[in-house]
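User: What would this chain look like folded?
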Amino acid sequence: MADYNPPIENLPIFDPLLFRIGDEFITQNDADNRYLRYPNAQGTENLQTINVNGVATFNTIVKSKEQLQLLDTTPAGTTTECLVGANSTTNNRFALVLNPVSGAYGGLCLANDNLLVSGDSAGIGLNQPLTIETWSTVTNGVRISDSEVIIGCGGTAHYPTNSLVTTPSGTNLYGSTFVYNNILMNASLSTNRQISTGYLNLNPVTGSPGATGTQIYQSNTASYWDNNTNGGTITFATNTTGGVQVLPLNITSTFVETNLPFKINTLGNYLQFPDGTQQTTAYSATATGKTYSTEYTSSATIPLPANLIGISIRLVGKGGLAGTNNDAGGSLWNSGGSGGGASMCISQTILSITTGSLSLTINNSAGQSSFISYNGVELCRAYNGNNGGSASSGSAGLAGSAQISGSANTNAGTWLISTGSAGIAGSINLPFQDCSVVPQSAGKPNAIITTGTSNDAVRGCGQRYSAIGVNNQCQTPSPLPQGGSAIITYYLI
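Assistant: Here's the prediction, encoded as structure tokens.
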């Protein structure tokens, strides 16, 4: 067998020039261009596949254009750190472990978790903070340290604007708005289930989160349950033993309504009223001495007071105006007629009206009426007297007529209903100095409600002219008739 190197080229004929012997010389430059120089490479090297059986040390950045895989072949439960990052100056160190045992670095870890752990490479302090956050000016991320765990986003400070911060002593939520589905606190110790807050806003059950509803808060020594919805109520609900819901107490802006018996226990307790009166026993369903009356002279919604057992009503219309006088020839006068009286209605029994409000309509136009309603049902109506006629150069004024009779709802109680009297016609061709007595009186209601000292000032009376003529002129008429009026008397427990 021949002992020589193979030819460098395969030809059909033998050429000794194509055979090299092993002792040919090669220059250093030629070797550097062809081979790696031990122990350092001369420049950029392109490798296909490499297998490293020992430790590979990279003294600068490692770049990979494809997926960088760390294949850990150690068995489960050996707690092998397949990826480690450490800084020799700060001693900060983190490690990626894919096969830990339970409690390998702390109580949170369970066997075979995917574990990222932060620590001290020098072993001086085992716990170094681990922070995961976005690279931006906004504080968004997670920070885990030996003393606290912070999760949040927003703002630029160390603690995010909206965050959850938990420490060994408790957990705190920070932020302006929190939206949850359900929160369940099931600690066995009741003090560990309490919620401490300075302000609680209850949204409507069917409304959107953030809507304003009822606020519950403490202000100094006062506790407030504040329903901020216009026309809203505060209602207490409970269930019977059979599971039926009842509403024992309902609070509105105008009254407090109880739908169940109100029970006062312990001898000596009582109900106290605005006048200081204390009630210790039940009322006897008859009027007591605790009454007061209020006169209303304009349309209004009248809320009924608490502790009411009934009311009585006196309603009267407005009397008519007197007609004007006329100077027939300088020395003789024709006088106008006086106004007619108004009708009225007066309840003769206590009306069993105790809650809610009355609706009062006062109309002071001639021939019109005023009325009172309760829960949309009219209780009584009183009509105004008509005006007297004005005098002319040849005739005196006609008398003002009274309006039709008043009306009342007899289903609500017993009433006195009356019609006013007509006024008195004026006189003609009287000397001016005598005009003070013509007409002599005005129309009156049949049952006068006195609020003044003369018939011209009482409710429901018509107007007349009075006073002695001076310098061929008649003085101004008596005071204008007072407008329609409702006087309501309240009977309390």
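The chain is about 0% helix and 30% strand. If you want, I can go into more detail on any region.
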